[in-house]
Every structure is written in structure tokens, then in C-alpha cells.
């Protein structure tokens, strides 16, 4: 099997898909923020930190991603190009979109922003994971921990981490609401729908032959 992030197989398709997914992911986060109806657990945490520190949402997202990536070291996880790009690109995009997108006014507009944001987030997840260039730092933390501690299921580890960051984010002033519940219910089925759609075709058996 090729090393994670190896670009010898369909590099143009994979890079295009990776960065399209990361840009769409940042856009989806901005849409949910502007809905004002609640965020996913990690973004509740990011927003809470941003409000307490005065830093931009994107800057906090990048900083937290970098710290989480450092936690990969004791787990012996190897980041790919997609992992490092995830840390930087999403934060830059979300700040850029927030700079031009005003908050939604009126409940119908806010609900529309939320729904479009959640669906776009699911599609973005399928795009960047399907590129096969490495998971995001937060997803890698979960999979790395379960690989090192097989008695813990991925579902349990994800639940513990996300409940923890959600609680911390709420205490710091992050927005918890209808959107938080809607995201939790919808993101699993959406990811299950989009990941196969954007998954790359299997590599040829001799693609990496010497």
C-alpha cells in the first residue's frame, strides 16, 4: 500500500478534490455561524475561544488544529498533505467568508443558512476524505487513539471528545442550539451518503511497482 498522501496516483484529481472539499468545509462553517442557530461541537469550542481571546474564528480554528496535530505525536500518527492543509485552509476560508457574509435576518433565512451549511459540510467531508491525502487533525486524533487503545470503540472515543469540547465551548460562550442537535443527527447519514460518491476508484495493482 502506498504511503499516506502519496500523489503518484491521479494527483490532479486528488489535489482538486482535496482543496475543493476544504474550501467548501470552511464555507459550510461560516454558513452555520451566520445562522446563529448553533454549531457542531468543535465549532462551539472554537467560537467560545474566539469570544474569550478576541481572535478571529478562523485563527482559533487554525491554532486548535495545530495543537491537536501535536497530540498525534504520542499516538504515532503520520499526517498527510490533507491533514496539514486542513489545519490552514479551513481557517482562512471561514474568516474570508465571515468577512463578506452578514448574519441571517429572519428565521427562514437563518434556517436556510443552517440547512445548507450542514449539507455542504457533509459533502465537504466526502470530498476531502475521498481524496485519500490524510484525515483532518480532529478525526485523526480519534482514529489514532482507538488504534492505540483497541478496547475503546471509535464511537465511544468520538462521543467523549465531542461532548468534552461541546461543554467547554458552551462554558466559554459558544453557541449551542437547534443547529447543534441538527448537525449531530444529520452529519453521520450525510457523510455516509457523500463519501462513496467522492471516493477515488481503486488504484491499479501495479501503480507503485518499482
TrEMBL record:
<feature type="transmembrane region" description="Helical">
    <location>
        <begin position="152"/>
        <end position="172"/>
    </location>
</feature>
<feature type="transmembrane region" description="Helical">
    <location>
        <begin position="12"/>
        <end position="33"/>
    </location>
</feature>
<feature type="transmembrane region" description="Helical">
    <location>
        <begin position="53"/>
        <end position="73"/>
    </location>
</feature>
<feature type="transmembrane region" description="Helical">
    <location>
        <begin position="107"/>
        <end position="131"/>
    </location>
</feature>
<protein>
    <submittedName>
        <fullName>Uncharacterized membrane protein YczE</fullName>
    </submittedName>
</protein>
<feature type="transmembrane region" description="Helical">
    <location>
        <begin position="178"/>
        <end position="200"/>
    </location>
</feature>
<dbReference type="Pfam" id="PF19700">
    <property type="entry name" value="DUF6198"/>
</dbReference>
<keyword id="KW-1133">Transmembrane helix</keyword>
<feature type="transmembrane region" description="Helical">
    <location>
        <begin position="80"/>
        <end position="101"/>
    </location>
</feature>
<keyword id="KW-0812">Transmembrane</keyword>
<keyword id="KW-0472">Membrane</keyword>
<dbReference type="InterPro" id="IPR038750">
    <property type="entry name" value="YczE/YyaS-like"/>
</dbReference>
Amino acid at each position: 500500500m502506498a504511503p499516506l498522501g502519496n500523489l503518484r496516483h491521479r494527483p490532479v484529481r486528488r489535489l482538486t478534490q482535496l482543496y475543493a472539499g476544504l474550501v467548501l468545509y470552511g464555507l459550510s462553517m461560516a454558513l452555520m455561524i451566520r445562522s446563529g442557530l448553533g454549531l457542531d461541537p468543535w465549532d462551539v469550542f472554537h467560537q467560545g475561544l474566539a469570544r474569550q481571546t478576541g481572535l478571529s474564528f478562523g485563527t482559533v480554528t487554525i491554532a486548535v488544529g495545530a495543537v491537536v496535530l501535536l497530540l498525534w505525536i504520542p499516538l504515532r500518527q503520520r499526517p498527510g498533505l490533507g491533514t496539514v492543509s486542513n489545519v490552514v485552509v479551513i481557517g482562512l476560508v471561514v474568516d474570508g467568508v465571515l468577512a463578506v457574509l452578514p448574519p441571517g435576518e429572519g428565521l427562514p433565512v437563518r434556517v436556510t443558512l443552517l440547512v445548507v451549511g450542514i449539507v455542504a459540510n457533509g459533502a465537504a467531508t466526502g470530498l476531502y476524505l475521498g481524496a485519500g491525502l490524510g484525515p483532518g487533525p480532529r478525526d485523526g486524533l480519534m482514529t489514532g487513539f482507538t488504534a492505540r487503545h483497541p478496547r475503546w470503540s471509535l464511537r465511544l472515543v468520538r462521543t467523549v471528545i465531542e461532548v468534552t469540547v461541546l461543554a467547554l465551548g458552551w462554558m466559554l460562550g459558544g453557541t449551542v442550539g437547534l443547529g447543534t442537535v441538527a448537525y449531530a443527527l444529520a452529519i453521520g447519514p450525510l457523510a455516509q451518503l457523500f463519501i462513496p460518491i467522492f471516493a477515488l476508484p481503486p488504484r491499479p495493482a501495479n501503480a507503485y511497482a518499482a
